[in-house]
Amino acid sequence: MPVNLKAPDPAALHAVAGVELGTARAQIRKPGRRDVLVLRLAEGASAAGVFTRNRFCAAPVRVCREHLERSGGAVRALVVNTGNANAGTGERGLSDARSTCEALAASLGCAPEQVLPFSTGVILEHLPMDRLLAGLPAAVADLAPARWAEAAEAIMTTDTVPKAVSRRVEIEGCPVTVTGISKGAGMIRPNMATMLGFIATDAAVPAALLQRWVREAADASFNRITIDGDTSTNDSFVLVATGAGGLRIDSDQSPGAAQLRALLVDVSRELAQAIVRDGEGATKFISVVVEGARTGDEAAAVAYAIAHSPLVKTAFFASDPNLGRILAAIGYAGIEDLDVDRVDLHLDDVQVASRGGRHPAYREEDGQRVMKQQEITVRAVLGRGDASTTVWTCDLSHDYVSINADYRS
Amino acid sequence: MPVNLKAPDPAALHAVAGVELGTARAQIRKPGRRDVLVLRLAEGASAAGVFTRNRFCAAPVRVCREHLERSGGAVRALVVNTGNANAGTGERGLSDARSTCEALAASLGCAPEQVLPFSTGVILEHLPMDRLLAGLPAAVADLAPARWAEAAEAIMTTDTVPKAVSRRVEIEGCPVTVTGISKGAGMIRPNMATMLGFIATDAAVPAALLQRWVREAADASFNRITIDGDTSTNDSFVLVATGAGGLRIDSDQSPGAAQLRALLVDVSRELAQAIVRDGEGATKFISVVVEGARTGDEAAAVAYAIAHSPLVKTAFFASDPNLGRILAAIGYAGIEDLDVDRVDLHLDDVQVASRGGRHPAYREEDGQRVMKQQEITVRAVLGRGDASTTVWTCDLSHDYVSINADYRS
């Protein structure tokens, strides 16, 4: 059961001028489900992306990087399949990803390097190219602007609900639309971006600026979530600016640039948090805030130590205020000169520890009350400096084990 | 159910001349179980230890380090309680650990700094000093050489079987005995040593040499196991040499030194592996071998990435050869310049991947056959150099979640 997350209302997902979407049921792995998605972008659109840092990055990730570079961001289409990650597949995997782009480019009348390929699913198996290529014409025939809900559904794997966020605002007197989708529920500790996030706006943003923004948005969203600490081979996060609306941004200094950037970060964060809310087996949504660190990296190391600890995560699952486990995680986060006698720990409004030990006024029943909530904020204050960060995660439940023990069966 | 691990036969645990052990039921946390252990060492014994690197190290760990230094290793007693870790307890925790040593020293007629204290159990709660001090006289009255089985039982927490290893050999014509005990089943990713390992020999070994050996033994045993990646606040591993037997070792060059050192490493490794075999919820015992790394640290980083991955561990639990998860873990282990096209992966005698992709001859049923075993060796060959290491771990099962969600209730 996802934590405070519902499937989006299709009517609330605004079309983005310059983007059409189409899906198909290609039986990549299982029959009957949408498993291929094509996004067509209008001429003049620019795209930018960030991708997994896993050294075993999947073939489509390598091809995405090549194509973004060769096309200078002048992308005309994205193609996504679920059910098979095309990772750990060597030369044949690369050739499969390239053939997919070529087939779609021929059908849409653009260059192959203007197509970005994405795959998600099982690792170490070859793509069923016959079925994938056979599915493309159906997805192309389905292309239409009002297909975001179907698109969000088509990229799901172990997700239990589709994830989409849409906003329509006015910036500098121009109506601007931002709509995005994401997927992911396990193998989630993005290290640049997660598999998969796609966000489109009808504003015009040059590719170089969009590339900077996509990194900044990832760092504030997809790079701040973790479910199980496993960085996927396929993480990809792509921002698209079609320029088909009225707002034109030329640089950070353009009127409306700051507002659009903030909107993109906001949508990214909501999509990233949706992945945690639908984390495999998740019953709670946990925000881990670390303050008083010397550097942002130090804050992140402590936040991830807490967010990855199986003992901390099972305690959240059990609503058990066994909070010494959080102190233990802070202690092994790798800060060699951490003075534990300066560390404070809070659970929402309850101070648990002060100066490295149990807070004198802390009562078990107060900890218990917070632990029973569905949404909990852990706040660790290190007392070393001014840097801080927030990481979002979920608990570790029986269902996580069930889902991952049964994934392929 | 522990993996190929049975409770030791008490008759097979040889007494070590110069060591007496006594236990008591002090109701530290739960009534009716042995929860206090005292080891008395003969005059002239030397002891050396390695302790957790967790910055939130427990009060008894701090006091152990002080006492080892002040006594120069001339230790006369160890005192252990379970049920409460005396960690995250500030000044009062230190004072409690010191009072415990003082009380035992008074009873045994030695100096307080000749007593080493150890605690294990819940973090962030104060020791029930009244009950602990009341239990000491009973443990002292119980002191006898043939109590290793009871001692192994008295230090258990979530362990399902007591862990003890005993060897009697002849070195340079002298009979030499080595007997040790360990405990631990969760919060296991020792970073110097694990909570708790105690090994005693009746050979004579000077404290400085013993200190070197305890580090080397830890690095080859307790520092190569992981259950959940959580480094405890209380990890402690102590070697004792009573000198009450016939063998005298003065330096690494003494006759028999190499043999005794190898024996101590061997016993350490068996005790460390016993902790993994009894890992919380473990159904499989996994050896992760990484070869062809540039450095030992690099090999260890890859081995731990595999051994900590919840996705890899749940796949082992399910006997599912979803081996792409192992490649993904290798890929995110932090080797920035890893050439994945040189990576091979083996599961026992089955080659799964070659040159970064699926091995042409790999068949799913071969992977399945190995995954069904109770003991499995994963071997990753990086193709970068000559360094290698082995880490031992277990799978991640439903019972791990149950045990840790219920631990305090």
TrEMBL record, chains A, B:
Which positions are catalytic residues?
Answer: 194
Q: Which UniProt keywords apply?
A: Acyltransferase, Amino-acid biosynthesis, Arginine biosynthesis, Autocatalytic cleavage, Cytoplasm, Multifunctional enzyme, Transferase
Q: Which domain of life is it from?
A: Bacteria
Q: Which GO terms describe its cellular component?
A: cytoplasm
- By its UniProt entry, which Pfam families does this protein fall under? ArgJ
Enzyme class label: transferase
Query: In its UniProt record, which GO terms are filed under biological process?
Result: L-arginine biosynthetic process; ornithine biosynthetic process
Q: InterPro entries of this UniProt entry?
A: Arg_biosynth_ArgJ, ArgJ-like_dom_sf, ArgJ_beta_C
Q: Where is this site: Involved in the stabilization of negative charge on the oxyanion by the formation of the oxyanion hole?
A: 120-121
Give binding positions for substrate: 157, 183, 194, 280, 404, 409
- A single MF term (Gene Ontology): L-glutamate N-acetyltransferase activity
Q: Where is this site: Cleavage?
A: 193-194
Q: Where in the cell is it found?
A: Cytoplasm
Where mainly located? cytoplasm
Pathway of action: Amino-acid biosynthesis; L-arginine biosynthesis; N(2)-acetyl-L-ornithine from L-glutamate: step 1/4; Amino-acid biosynthesis; L-arginine biosynthesis; L-ornithine and N-acetyl-L-glutamate from L-glutamate and N(2)-acetyl-L-ornithine (cyclic): step 1/1
Q: Answer yes or no on keyword Cytoplasm.
A: yes
| Catalysed reactions, as listed in the record | N(2)-acetyl-L-ornithine + L-glutamate = N-acetyl-L-glutamate + L-ornithine; L-glutamate + acetyl-CoA = N-acetyl-L-glutamate + CoA + H(+)
Q: What is its EC number?
A: 2.3.1.35, 2.3.1.1
The protein's assembly and partners: Heterotetramer of two alpha and two beta chains.
What family does the database annotate? Answer: Belongs to the ArgJ family.
> What PANTHER family does the record tag this protein with?
ARGININE BIOSYNTHESIS BIFUNCTIONAL PROTEIN ARGJ, ARGININE BIOSYNTHESIS BIFUNCTIONAL PROTEIN ARGJ, MITOCHONDRIAL
Q: What does this protein do?
A: Catalyzes two activities which are involved in the cyclic version of arginine biosynthesis: the synthesis of N-acetylglutamate from glutamate and acetyl-CoA as the acetyl donor, and of ornithine by transacetylation between N(2)-acetylornithine and glutamate.
Name by which UniProt lists this protein: Arginine biosynthesis bifunctional protein ArgJ
Organism of origin: Quisquiliibacterium transsilvanicum
